[in-house]
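Following up on my earlier message about thiamine diphosphate. Here are the inputs again, as you asked, copied directly from the submission form:
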Amino acid sequence: MPIEEVYNCSVKRLQILDENGNLDEALFPEGLSGDSLVEMYKYMLLARAVDAKALSLQRQGRLATYAPLIGEEATHIGTAYAMRKQDIFIPAFRQHGVQIVRGLPLDLFFLYWRGFEDGAKLPASLNQTPVIVPVGTQLPHGAGIAFALKYLKKDAAAIVYIGDGGTSEGDFYEALNFAGVWKAPLVCIIENNQWAISVPRSAQTAAETLAQKAIAAGINCIQVDGNDVLAVYKATRDAIQNSKDGPMVIECVTYRMSMHTTSDDPEKYRPDAEVEKWEKKDPIDRIRKYLTKNGLWNDSLEQKTKDEQAKFIDQAVEKAEQFKPDPKTMFENVYGTITQTLEEELSDAMSANFWQESEDD
Ligand SMILES: Cc1ncc(C[n+]2csc(CCOP(=O)(O)OP(=O)(O)O)c2C)c(N)n1
Ligand SMILES: [Mg+2]
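Thanks, got it. Here's what our run produced:
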């Protein structure tokens, strides 16, 4: 008796805009206007400018540990631009570009990265869960939220983000398994930036792609050029449109151009040649080339936009730096009932002396 094939699978890869700004017309996302392309580009510039400001503030001691986004703008803006307001956005900790497109007040962004939990108190209208640092834990939340949306018959999807490293966590597989069984409207964006701190993608898994991890859970998947904002946008928009029929995994292949966080030095573990190779694939350069070639952008618009964005960012930083924290917030929400040690520390913190000494340090 011949050995039967019971299952056969493959993973497709989508790219629309190449490194030189040339477009595959046949794949261009239907209905996307020139104005929308310019808006996406401006968001990418803004994300990069906010990132540069955050890094500079951290180096001046005006921000706490920060996780840069540079290089990942197309993955952030493309996915965010495809989302609808009613969709629920479930980030990990690096998706600042998505937050910007979703309308996060920028002062809250700086407040959060200054280390104040008040920056994590998000307006409910954003439909976003808080930034989450324990790797992978947002996946079960995302699957649960997607299940709830289906149960409540809402016309909305849950969009959850995870890094290449995060896909090795049990939480990732468990969440996909659940979402697959329940055909929950979950769109899982794997932001494959090639590194998990100092662990390269090649040491993370023997699988050829990260997208294919969806297949065992019975979930559709695609790999996209994560530095091509059009491909990222199209894949995400299609996945959201189809989410009423079940989940989708999108692997965005991109690159972390900078350090993992400001407490890390990538020069210790990765070759310059690798970074230089990815510089040629810069997500902002290629869309700028396309827009310029098509008469939608020029140097004076670039300068005007950058000037306006710099002012906008400075105002947000000023507001965040004027914020006066209530020391009590550090002690709240740690335990259901405050412990004796925390009670003592709180009482110290509430004394005027404590703050005087800290300021003099
Ligand atoms: C459960 C858990 N283990 C370890 C860490 C420490 N840690 C923080 S980020 C990170 C790497 C994450 O890599 P990846 O998922 O690729 O996301 P990226 O940082 O590249 O965006 C690790 C190991 C953590 N925060 N949580
Ligand atoms: Mg990573």
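One observation from looking it over: The longest strand covers residues 186-192. Hope that helps, and feel free to reply on this thread.
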